[in-house]
Amino acid sequence: MPTEAAPEETPSKIIERPSPLTGLARSGLALAAAAVFLGREFLESDGPVTATPMLLGGIAAVIALFGGISGIITWKTTTFVADEAEFRVERNFINRSSTRVDYTKVQSVDIGQPFIARLLGLAKVHIDVGGAGGVDLAYLRKARAETLREDLIARMRHARSDHRDGAEEPDATTGQEDADESVVVKVPARNLLLGTLVSGGATFSLIIAVTFVVLSVFADTPVTLVAGVIAVGGWLWSQTGRNWGFTMTRRGESLRITRGLLSTTAQGLRPERIQAVAVRQDLLQRLTGLYQVTVTVLGYGDPTSGDDASTNAVVLPYGTWEEVLTVLRAFWSDVDLADIEPNGQPERARWLTPVTFHTHTWGIGRDVMVAQHGLFTQVRSIVPHRRMQSASIEQGPLQRRLRLAGILVHTTDGPVTLQLKHLDEGVARMVFLDQLERARLARLAVE
Amino acid sequence: MPHVDQRDFPPARRSATVPVDRAGHEDLFAPPGATWQRLSPNYLKMKLLLIPLTWGLISAALTVVSFLWAPRWVAWSVVALAFVWIGWRLWRAPRVYRRWGFAERDEDVYVTNGLWFRTLQCVPYGRMQLVEVTSGPIEQRFGLASVQMVTSSTAGTVSIPGLDATAAAALRDRLIARGEQQQAGI
C-alpha cells in the first residue's frame, strides 16, 4: 500500500493534531439549540407536548451528532507539520489529501473564533495564499493557534527576504503623508447621469418598470408597482448614489478614491496591487462615448458576490476615452494603448462568430496584453505580462476542423478575464509560447 | 483586415513581437522541448471499471423509473441508450487517457488533456500557491493520487489525476521546492 512521503523522514519533524475538543466545537451550536428546544419543551410544557419544538430539537440533535462525529473524525485523521522546511496538512479519512503550502506564498494568517469555540478556548486558523482557496485548520487551542500564526508569518517574512529584499512589500503607508495630493480624475454629475441613463441597463430597467406599471394597472394591485419602483430605484441608486462625486486622487505612489452621496467612502488603491483592468461600454453608451473601468485587485475578493466589493472594483464609473486613458496612465505610467496594434480573427472564424466577428480583437504591447470582445457590451480587458498567473490553449472540435484555437490568460480572481477567442492554430501556438516567455521576463525584471 | 474601431486603436507599426504567419507550424499541443510524462496505467484500469459502474447505476435507476411510469418503448430505448453510451465511453476511455500528459520544465509545468475539447496549460512554478495531493477511496485501491496545483486564479488551477501515489507526493515536493526557489510576487 503506497503512502505519502512519510512524515517520519527526519527525526525532528513534530506531527501535530487539532484539539480533541474539535468534535464538541463542531456540534456545539446545534447541541445548544437541541438543548434549548428540548429542554424548554420538557420543563415548561403544561399542556400536551407540541410537535414542532420536538421536531426542531430532534433535527438539531441529529445535526449535533453528525457535527460531533465529523469533528472527532477530523481530529483523529488530521495531522499537520509546521517546521522550518515546510507547512503541510494531511487528512486521512475517506479522501486522503496532503496539502503543502509554500511559505513564500502565505498572504495572511487569520484566527477565527466562532462562539462555541471561544467558550472552549479553541480557534480556527485560516491561511490565505492569494486568490483561490486557502487552508483551514480547525480547531486548535487558542494559544497554539496564535503561536502557529506567529510562526507562519515569521517564516513567510524570512522566506521572502531570502529571495528578495522586500521588493514586493511596499510600505506605502508610511512616509508619504506629506506629499501633495493631486486630482487624477473627477466624474461630473452630468457624465454619471448620462452614463447611467443612456445605457443597456437603463433600457432593461425601463422595460421592467413598464411591465410593472402595466401589470399593476391591469391587475389593480399597487403592490407590484411598489416592487417595481423599489427594483428600479435600487439599481439607479447603486449606479449613481454610490458613485456620486467620484474623485480619484494621487498622493505619492498611492491612489485614493472617494465617492458616495449619503455616506462618502474613501478607498485606497495601490497601483502595484492591480492585476487587470476591464474597460466596458454597452451599445447605448456608444452614443454618449462613455466607458466604465473596473479592476481586479488583490484582496478585494470576488467583486461579483458582494455589493460593496462590486462598487469597490469600479475605478471609473463613467468617463470619456480621454479619462479612461488618464486612469490607465495613473495605474501604469508606461503603458500606451495607442502603441498596441489590434489583430483580428482569421476569416474562417466567421463560421463560429457570425455576428460578432468584427468585435473580437487582440493585441500585445511591451507591458500588457489586450483583448476586446462583445457587440452589445464591448469589453476590453488589459492584463500586464507580469501579472499573468498561467495561460492555456483551448481547442474545441469545431475549432479543430477550422484549424483555430483560443488562448486563455489567467489572472487573479476578479471581474476581468482575458481570452483570445479564435486564432489560427500556428499563430495561437506562437502567441502562447511568446506570451509565457514575456511573462517570465516581466517577472524576472521585477525581482 | 477586419474592421477595428480606429478611434480607439490608431493604426501603428506592425508589432514585432507577434509573428502572424504559419511558418514553423508544430503540433498545437506538443510540449516545448520536452516529452510528456503520462499517467499511471492503473488510471485507465480504474476508469474502465468506474465507467460501467457509475453509468450502469445511473441508467439502472432511470430504467426502473421508466419501466414503472413510462410506456414500454421508452423504457427499452433507455436501456439501449445506456448500453450505447457506456460502450461509447469505454471505447473512448483509452484515447482520453492517452491525451493526458504533463511535462516538468526548468521554470514551469505543462499539462495537456482532453480529446474533444483539448487544452494545453502552462503554470510557472513561481505562481503555485499551494500544491495538494488527494486520493479518494477508489483511487487508493489502485494506488493512485492526484496532484492539484493552486494558483491565485481559480480558472487557472489545474490538477493531474491518476498518478502513482508515491510519484504524486514526490511531484508535489518537487513543485513546492522549485516554487520556493522561483517565487514571484502576485
TrEMBL record, chain A:
Residues 159-180 are annotated as: Disordered. Keywords: Membrane, Transmembrane, Transmembrane helix. The chain crosses the membrane at residues 51-73, 192-215, 221-238. Residues 75-150, 242-302, 360-428 form the YdbS-like PH domain. It comes from the Bacteria. The keyword Transmembrane applies. This is Putative membrane protein. It comes from Tessaracoccus bendigoensis DSM 12906. The lineage of its organism: Bacteria, Bacillati, Actinomycetota, Actinomycetes, Propionibacteriales.
From TrEMBL, chain B:
Keywords: Membrane, Transmembrane, Transmembrane helix. InterPro entries: YdbS-like_PH (IPR005182). The keyword Transmembrane applies. The keyword Transmembrane helix applies. Residues 97-175 form the YdbS-like PH domain. The chain crosses the membrane at residues 48-67, 73-91. PANTHER family: TRANSMEMBRANE PROTEIN-RELATED, UPF0699 TRANSMEMBRANE PROTEIN YDBS. This is YdbS-like PH domain-containing protein. It comes from Tessaracoccus bendigoensis DSM 12906. The lineage of its organism: Bacteria, Bacillati, Actinomycetota, Actinomycetes, Propionibacteriales.
